[in-house]
Amino acid sequence: MIQKVTLRDKFELFHDHWHPRIVGQVNDMHVKLTRLKGEFLWHTHDEEDEMFLVVEGQLIIRLRDGEVALGPGEFIVIPHGVEHQPVAMEEVLVMLFEPVGTLNTGNVENERTVAQLDWI
Amino acid sequence: MIQKVTLRDKFELFHDHWHPRIVGQVNDMHVKLTRLKGEFLWHTHDEEDEMFLVVEGQLIIRLRDGEVALGPGEFIVIPHGVEHQPVAMEEVLVMLFEPVGTLNTGNVENERTVAQLDWI
């Protein structure tokens, strides 16, 4: 039978940062969970919109024209082509919705790129 | 500048049941909010997977081979083609994630079908 997903239980399965895990798929979109802490790099996604829903903590998304602060129960959709930099002063737990195949670092590939994502 | 969405604030904008509102779009998927109370009808979606994330309350999804009970912070993805019936003994606040154009009643069209969804 189809199983539900309990976000808290899934988050307990990993504790590293900036390394998303896949927890669901809705047609050609992945639902991912990630823990964030510190500053990520500025990047864009050429074709993929990206939704960040904060589950716990405070997330800042820096944009070229300002920044947005999000707490639990708040989300933002970054349209493709829009430069952004996620920043977490303290640890943040985030659920992501984005197309299958979306790279965490978008148009940048470096040591922070996670090329192969695992299902948990 | 891109705006965030606060789920609680959006839920306060409507109080009817079984009438989803659109609060975001991620590529060709809509993010919707809905209040549910009582029994919905059995239906399937021919092509669209459907994700239910419970924000508040308790949601039961009946399937032909059993049922799944979900509380806040839990989600389920109903794959296309799978018959399901959402049931809320008390009011439930739910975030939906599904392809643009998904009908709330799927393969059934009746007085509970909401053909035109509004953005809020």
Automatic annotation (TrEMBL), chains A, B:
Question: Which ranges carry the Cupin type-2 domain?
Answer: 39-91
Q: Which Pfam families match?
A: Cupin_2
CDD domains assigned to the protein according to its UniProt record, in alphabetical order: cupin_YdbB-like
Quote the InterPro entries the UniProt record gives.
Answer: Cupin_2 (IPR013096), PKS_Associated_Protein (IPR052044), RmlC-like_jellyroll (IPR014710), RmlC_Cupin_sf (IPR011051)
Q: Give the residue range of the signal peptide.
A: none
- What's the protein name? Cupin domain-containing protein
List the source organism.
Alicyclobacillus mengziensis
